[in-house]
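User: I'm curious whether this sequence folds into something compact or stays loose and floppy. Could you predict its structure so I can see for myself?
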Amino acid sequence: MEEQNFAVGLDIGTTKIVAMIGRKNDFGKLEILGIGKSQSLGVHRGVVNNITQTIQSIQQAVQDAELDSGFKISEVTVGIAGQHIRSLHHSDYITRANSEAVIDETDLELLENQVHKLVMLPGEEIIHVLPQDYKVDGQAEIKEPIGMYGGRLEANFHVVVGQVASIRNIGRCVKSAGIDLDGITLEPLASANAVLSQEEKEAGVALIDIGGGTTDLAIFKDGIIRHTAVIPFGGNVITEDIKEGCSIIEKQAELLKIKFGSAWPGENKENEIVSIPGLRGRDPKEITLKNLSKIIHARVVEIIEQVYVEIKNYGHEERKKKLIAGIVLTGGGSQLNHLKQLVEYITGMDTRIGYPNEHLAGESDSEITSPLYATAVGLVMDGVRRSEKRGWSMTEIPPAVGETQGQDEEQPIDEKKPRRSFLDTLTERVKHFLDNAE
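Assistant: Here's the prediction. I'll summarize afterward.
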């Protein structure tokens, strides 16, 4: 097999852990080479609460992906989410020493580094600093100030903040599973890259990723991410409600939700009944589908309303900030019957289900194009992009074919050094912390 840019995405979720291996094909599309999945036992609402169980689940998923692809995994791009993630808006400026010189990358870096010095709550750290728009000497709404003249450079930033301990715990689990950390990415951003088109990002769109433990929101407008939020509810609370409401065990509640669940009670007739086997010789339980969808409906409405509050906080009701492309639902929870209709009914916004086939090669397995794998596909894309940026092939890491390529010396030297994102810096810091904590 010919070697080229490989990347591995590791999605550490509340219900499942997915390891996915992929590379870019000749047409620039993502080709998935292998996938491994395991039950996530040590994660609650996106946060690791049992290191040992999480390590075992990661190892299981990675082994399955290796068997599926025939490649050895030694570096992964990991997604971070969880209830500890929050975002804020911040404006900052720098006064340039020489207004006669044009604004360049160094000025933008200086401005971003200044934002990084913001005082956070104890234990919190800035994960992402995303510039929204710039102002040069009072001239507003500048998207790209490089090459302009000016003395005062201002910018509005969208700042994503998270608990550094939670991020380190994820790094620790990955390292203890015998794998190196190649990069860290915010999961709503990974999912967005996998399921949204550039046109939608330009027009204005809200991506809602309904996972097991959390619901992630990412809002784009004019091609730029404008707002992110993590709501600490997901598919698991719906299962929990069914378990309590119908007095059945969790496994049965999950199966009921997947097989017969609907977010719209009006769809079920009163006489539609499903029989659940009783425990250890007890009589079977009869549950009406009408009642089941009423339980699901109540919780789903609560989740959607919380998300809609965040969409309104962004300013969707203002004319300039209107999200023309509406809402895109993805994640495992988006597969619930009639959810699209309910979301449209509550928010009044156009809604579609997002499948991660936007950037996948045509012959991809139908299982991979399920909304369930949106985050994993996005993480692989991020890994591929990162390895292209570095300009060397990630297959030097997985020793599948075991032959080194002697083309390193011939690589063109790019005079313009790519700007390191704070996530790259954060990855370096987490790696450094883990190396010294041994």
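Summary: The radius of gyration is 23 Å. Residues 289-314 form the longest helix (26 residues).
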